[in-house]
């Protein structure tokens, strides 16, 4: 398995800095885990003899989110929870339960959850593996993060 990402980028929040309390915020969002075990679990839970050939980090504030690409071109989202997200087990189980509720009670298309692990001993952190759906982030579609005066039509 050839994973070309440094541990510095992998385990810590790298999308920005805080003007006040940067060291504390970085520490609260730091999560060290066994990336090779995560990739092994993804291959085991999702594919028939497939393996992870690429790991891409996706920006996220309170979790480490990765796009895992398998050798059969299937893509999987892996979310490794940081301690700041809440009590152990509650955040990951809540996310999986919410997805199951939406799938069963609405017509909203949600990603399939392949694996849910709350035992931090196995990987070093709790995590969830799920289907990568087509499309983009909802906030990008709705323009939730547009800055005033940044309209290109002006």
UniProtKB/TrEMBL annotation:
Localization terms from the record: Mitochondrion
Keyword annotations: Mitochondrion, Transit peptide
Residue ranges crossing the lipid bilayer per the database entry: none
Keyword hit for Mitochondrion: yes
Keyword hit for Oxidoreductase: no
Superkingdom, natural source: Eukaryota
Main location, first listed in the record: mitochondrion
A Gene Ontology cellular-component term: mitochondrion
Recorded family membership: Belongs to the AIM9 family.
Protein name: Altered inheritance of mitochondria protein 9, mitochondrial
Taxonomic source organism: Penicillium cosmopolitanum
